[in-house]
Amino acid sequence: MSTIGAILKDEPVSVTERNRSLPRHLGRIIRRCLAKDPDRRYQTALDLRNELEELKAEIDSGELMAEPGGANGRSRRSSRTLLGIGAIAALAIVAVIAITSRKDGESPPAVYTSRPITGTIGQEMNINWSPESVFMAFGQTREGSVDVMVQPVAGGEAVVRVGGPGTETSPHWSPDGKFLAYVSSSEPGNPVFLIPPHGGSPRRLVSTNIRTLDLDKMGSAMGDRPWSADSRALLVSRVDASGRTAIYRVDRDKGDAEQLTFPPAGSVDLSSSYSFDGERIAFQRRSNGKGILLMMPAAGAVISGADGTASTTLKL
Questions:
Q1: How is 284-296 classified by DSSP, letter by letter?
Q2: Nearest to 85 by CA among 61, 56, 60
Q3: What's the alpha-carbon Rg for the chain, to the nearest Å?
Q4: How far apart are alpha carbons 187 and 166 in whole angstroms?
Q5: What confidence score (pLDDT) does residue 255 get?
Q6: Please, are residues 142 and 122 in contact by the beta-carbon 8 Å criterion?
Q7: 213-269, pLDDT tens digit by residue?
Q8: Do 150 and 161 meet the contact criterion of CB atoms below 8 Å apart?
Q9: Are the CB atoms for 61 and 53 separated by under 8 Å?
Q10: CATH architecture of the domain formed by 124-315
Q11: Phi, psi (5° rounding) for residue 2?
């Protein structure tokens, strides 16, 4: 550490004074490496390398002699050898200074840490934040089933909000924070339920009639942002009377479902989400193992055709 301290604080003796056979330009390069003012040093190793390569080229060509008054071939070879040693030393000096010093006002590197929020009971999935970012809702595998959990972000035990032998997945917090919507396989039709996040009983909202296996392969009955901005409605994929999977807007209180999309035969519409301004809806349309993303006005539009486009629909 005494060597590092000397590099950072003491004025060095010129290397060319210690060894007269070295080119003066090498001494200048090393002095710049050791400059006390960080702004006067080489700012990158590339700058230093370029200077050293130019010096070597001048020595090799004979343009720059190692000693005043000329030098024979032997002295040039000696200079090249010493230049190589000097180059290594200069690079080492730059590395030491870069590690041990910073410009005034420069902040130290940020150190990011993480901490566990849940335990090791099972696998967690489908994380969704509460509107005030104080709680998280997620699905957790527990003894062969998947339960909806609510966890305080600050710490503490996760609370089982919905448990049982079935699979309860994809919890979504309403923007007003009053409800969690989730999909359940505990009852026929894989319905969507609503439940108060901090106490109360679940309420069946609407059936999706989509098999869980199909959702695992293709998408989700609800997208990342299924709630309307006013928390009064929810976007849900469900199988219509003709057997096609379409997007519906479901009234939170009454359960009335308004069909918004009309996919062509062989296609399914899934994973619908509102835009942040509430003006548009994006969703996935899948057919024959492939999918495209579509966008439509939040008021709804008739969407048909093999490629899913219409005059009121934009394909992403």
A1: EEEETTEEEEEEE
A2: 56
A3: 35
A4: 8
A5: 92
A6: yes
A7: 444 445 688 888 999 999 999 999 999 878 889 999 999 999 999 999 989 988 899
A8: yes
A9: no
A10: 6 Propeller (2.120)
A11: -65, -35
- What does the pLDDT read at residue 66? 46
Q: Which residue has the tokens 């026929």?
A: 188
Rounded Cα distance, 205 and 113, in Å? 41
Ranges in the chain, pLDDT < 70: 1-23, 62-108, 120-121, 211-219, 301-316
- Per DSSP, which regions of 86-215 are E strands? 124-129, 135-142, 145-152, 159-162, 168-173, 180-184, 192-195, 203-206
Phi, psi of 181 (to 5 degrees): -100, 140
Shortest CA distance to 26 belongs to which of 65, 73, 61?
65
Beta bridge partners of residue 137, listed in sequence order: 128, 150
Q: Which two tokens stand for residue 285?
A: 């349309």
Please state, in angstroms and rounded to a whole number, the distance separating the CA atoms of residues 214 and 43.
57
Q: What is the DSSP letter of 253?
A: T
DSSP conformational letter for 276? T
Taking residue 239's Cβ as centre, other Cβ atoms within 10 Å add up to 18
Token pair 């969704």 in the structure block, residue? 128
Residues of the chain with CATH 2.120.10.30: 124-315
**How many C-beta atoms lie closer than 10 Å to residue 82's C-beta?**
18
